Structures are given as C-alpha cells and as structure tokens.
Amino acid sequence: MAGNWQNASGDILTFNDTGLATEGMTPNMLDIDQNGILLLDVQTGTRSNVTLYIVPAGTSFSSDYLNGQADNTDVSKDRVISSADINSGDLANKAYYHVSK
Prior knowledge:
- The protein has one domain.
- The protein has one helix and eight strands.
- It has one helix spanning 91-94, and strands at residues 3-6, 12-16, 19-20, 25-32, 38-44, 50-55, 79-82, 96-100.
- It has an eight-stranded antiparallel β-sheet.
C-alpha cells in the first residue's frame, strides 16, 4: 500500500508504512466488506466524510456501491476509489492506481 497512488487527472493519494499520509486527509475508521474490499473512512477539509475503497487486483468493485452499474476500472490492478467519485460517470479515470513506492 505504501507509496503514491494517482488517477488519470493527476490527483495523488499518498500512503506510508502506517497508513494514509495525504495532507488534509485524516483517517477515522477502517473496515472490510464481504468481498475483501477495505473501506477507509476519511475526514477532509472540503468534505466532512469520504470513504476510500481499497480494491485488490482481481476483485471487481461491487455494483452495490455503483448503483447497479458495472465496474469499469482496471480489475487487473490494485486500486483506490473515492466515494466522492462513484457517481461521476467517469470512474475508470477517477480510480487511483499505485504508481510509486
């Protein structure tokens, strides 16, 4: 998990050995769903509450989270999906992928 995760827009999330290290984001709670997706609840300056879904490679992001739509992200890679982007209509470009350690 440690390193930088970037989406197609150039936005970056940073994780270190102890967790989320992106400035302005404070992790609150970590949970895991029945499909093995980690749910990291985060407080930010612009939104009071955002969930980061950490989806392992080989696992589809559940259509339950996508209002019945299919996961169009790169399922062959680990990815981070923000709840703020789920209804953007552009999830494939909003998903964050690991780019550096």
